[in-house]
Amino acid sequence: MPDPDGQAVEVLSLADVAAAAKAVTSAAVWDFIEGGSGVERSLRANRAGLDAVYVLPRILRDVSRQSAAGVLLGSPVSMPVVTAPMAYQRLVNAEGELAAARAAKVADVPFTVSMLSSVSVEELAAAGGTLWFQLYWLRDRAVTLELLERAEAAGCQALMLTVDVPRMGRRLRDVRNGFTLPPGVTAVHLGGPETSAHRWQSGASAVAAHTQQIFDPTLSWSDLGWLRERTTMPLIVKGVLDPNDAARAAGAGVAGLVVSNHGGRQLDGSAAGIDVLPKIREAVDGRCQVYLDGGIRGGGDVLGALARGADAVLLGRPILWGLAAAGERGVNDVLSLLREEFDHAMILAGCRDLADVRQLQVVDSRAPMR
Q1: CATH numbers and ranges of domains, the chain
Q2: If exposure means fewest CB atoms within 10 Å of the residue's CB, which of 17, 153, 217, 286 is most exposed?
Q3: Nearest residue to 195 via CA among 186, 208, 184, 205
């Protein structure tokens, strides 16, 4: 991976990728990627929660043969990782989502197409690989239906409804920067070369203003049923933290849940997903798959998440780091490194496969075993 002067940089951890990305990214865009809402308590909580997870490795097991492969919603994957839906990836690289999707295909993990993608789902589908499509609830129901039809026609294998954004969180870094999308970067699925997200407003985020115009805050449980009736794609609900909501969603027939506080970018003070994951797992009682989103920064985090009850994790910001640092090659590096770290962690924990990982016992360092 090159540095700003074009010299090769040794990448030994995802933190190395982050440093390379920050060096070539404008301050305002970096804040848009890295920032959380409010005073960023929930952003910090994601890492604090993952940092507190310690596993009890098993010993005297033959780990000469080990595999991280699994199945997510009927599709084989090389490891229990999905790229998270992230908007406007052309902010950090000219190819944007297309480069990231190609890297996900090489890594054999699903790529989640954001509704606010800067590359169309049709173009991403042409690149091959397993695609999931993410949807926000829109005021214009006709546009929602059109997007469902386009995602199905493109061959997307799952639909991920994000439910924790009745309006965008107050992200103070963006407010202070008066963050505005640059010309040429737009949500291509919503039509038109420019929107209110491109119009600067003093003391405000133009992206937040745009989403407030188009997102429908009336989203409710009845809408979940409406959506299920209008698509054949398995439905995943993203943004679940309360076990009662998880149980109700599982009872409504969803195929998966993403335990997530939106990377600390929505309600500041919402719990870290890793901390509520065991209760969510218990609440759904095997009726759907459970994924963890927020703060994953290495293979050890993936191991800990699965040991706590996740079927897979969503990887967000590190994908953007790789994309910013070196385009498709950078995302390849991120996913290859994560796979290497996860394989290594599995072997050292005495795990031959994902079933072994899920049997590991976990200690929370904030509440040690007695």
Answers
A1: 14-175+218-364 (3.20.20.70)
A2: 286
A3: 186
Six token digits for residue 257:
């849940």
Q: Where in the sequence numbering do the catalytic residues fall?
A: 262
Structure tokens at 341: 């770290």
SS3 sequence of 206-258: HHHHHHHHHECCCCCHHHHHHHHHCCCCCEEEEEECCHHHHHHHHHCCCCEEE
Average pLDDT over residues 63-71: 98
DSSP sequence for 105-171:
HHHT--EEEPTT-SS-HHHHHHT-S-EEEEEPPBS-HHHHHHHHHHHHHTT---EEEE-S-SS----
pLDDT reading at 4 higher than 60: no
Q: What's the pLDDT band for 202 if we cut at 50, 70, 90?
A: confident
pLDDT tens column, 152-179: 999 999 999 999 999 999 999 999 999 9
- Alpha carbons 264 and 253: distance in angstroms, whole number: 27
Mean pLDDT rounded to a whole number for the chain: 96
**pTM value?**
0.96
Give CA–CA dist 30/179, Å, rounded: 11
Res. 194: pLDDT tops 80: no
pLDDT at 220: 97
CA 364 to chain centre: 24
How many other β-carbons are positioned within 10 Å of the β-carbon of residue 41?
16
Q: How confident is the model at residue 369 (pLDDT cuts 50, 70, 90)?
A: low
Joined together, the tokens standing for residue 122 give 């049709």
Q: Residue 330 has what DSSP assignment?
A: H
Rounded CA separation 92/185 (Å): 10
* The two three-digit tokens of residue 159, written as one number: 């639909």
Q: Tell me, what DSSP letter sits at residue 265?
A: T
Q: Do the Cβ atoms of 307 and 53 come closer than 8 Å?
A: yes
| 3-class secondary structure, 81 | strand
User: What pLDDT score does 2 carry?
Assistant: 66
Residue 335: closest CA among 295, 298, 293, 292: 298
